[in-house]
Write a structure and sequence with these properties.
Elements lengths: L2 E5 L5 H10 L3 E5 L3 H11 L2 E2 L3 H5 L4 E4 L4 H9 L13 E4 L5 H13 L3 E4 L2 E2 L1 H7 L2 E7 L1 H11 L3 E8 L3 H29 L4 H8 L7 H11 L9 H18 L4 H15 L11 H5 L2
Helix pairs in contact: 8-10, 8-11, 8-12, 9-10, 11-12
Length: 289
């Protein structure tokens, strides 16, 4: 069992840290909103720290999952950041969906202090975090990955090293690019089915068994038909992720026309006040033009 510092108790981090504590690890958490950390300790046990550095002190493994690149820098590199408190031989795992450049920078900073680093963005949403069913795509040195994997298995069904530092973030970009196109196509299919008088639930049940089937169809098709979006992965988060992917794509010379178009569709959802709606809310642009 490991001594773990865990920074970030959002909708994903809160249950992920809980799985670690329930697995027998000694978890110390930090969250900017202290009331949430209080609630976590009351629910799971473990300890609460006054700063990221305090959470990381004497830890074998430090896990961060926050909002964006700047947030990661704040909790890792800042005056009270985890790097200042981590010892040689420990490992930093960042589950934040962030840029590949940041992952490479953190890897170099950690390497200079004989600390392992793994960039490890996740897929599976809040339900995956709560059920311990996340898919985690990792970048970093093999030795750091091999040490971290058995620990982060506590909240994952698949943990895969994709290559050197930054490879996990690049793989997550591929994931978000694919989801964006899938959700737009599903939105158009649901919209069409409604207009021609089909029972959308039955349509989804039938075609999800064939070549058109996907997680998005099975889990979001029926709720899209009912106009229900007050759950799931927020549009604000998706736009952040797509912005990272589009910027990386521009540097690589990749053609991401559909991704760029869907990103603009999401900006229209935001203008409707749907910042916290689920990403399946793209169908609202079609149903309510």
């Amino acid at each position: 069992m490991a001594k773990i510092g865990f920074v970030g108790l959002g909708v994903m981090g809160y249950p992920m840290a809980g799985h670690l504590q329930a697995s027998g690890h000694d978890v110390t958490v930090f969250n900017r909103t202290t009331s949430k950390a209080d609630r976590w300790v009351a629910q799971y046990g473990g300890s609460q720290a006054a700063s990221p550095a305090d959470a990381a002190a004497n830890a074998d493994l430090v896990i961060t999952i926050v909002g964006n690149d700047d947030d990661v820098r704040s909790v890792v590199e800042g005056q009270d950041g985890v790097l200042g408190a981590m010892g040689a031989g420990s490992i930093l795992v960042d589950h934040t969906t962030a840029s590949a450049d940041l992952a490479r920078s953190l890897h170099q900073q950690c390497k200079a202090k004989d600390i392992g680093f793994v960039d490890a963005p996740v897929s599976g949403g809040q339900s995956g975090a709560e059920n311990g069913g996340l898919t985690i795509m990792c970048g970093g040195d093999q030795s750091a990955f091999d040490t971290a994997q058995p620990i982060i298995d506590a909240y994952a069904v698949a943990v895969t090293r994709m290559g050197d530092a930054g490879s996990g973030q690049l793989t997550k970009m591929v994931n978000q690019i694919c989801i964006a196109g899938l959700v737009q196509a599903l939105s158009e299919g649901v919209h069409f089915a409604k207009l021609v008088g089909l029972d959308v639930d039955r349509v989804v049940e039938v075609i999800s068994q064939g070549a058109a089937g996907s997680w998005q169809m099975a889990n979001r098709g029926p709720t899209m038909a009912r106009g229900e979006f007050d759950f799931g992965f927020a549009v604000d988060w998706m736009r952040k992720d797509l912005g990272i992917a589009l910027a990386e794509g521009e540097r690589a010379g990749a053609s991401l026309a559909i991704t760029a178009l869907v990103d603009q569709f999401y900006s229209r959802i935001q203008s409707r006040g749907g910042n916290r709606w689920d990403t399946s809310s793209l169908v609202d642009l079609l149903d309510n033009p």
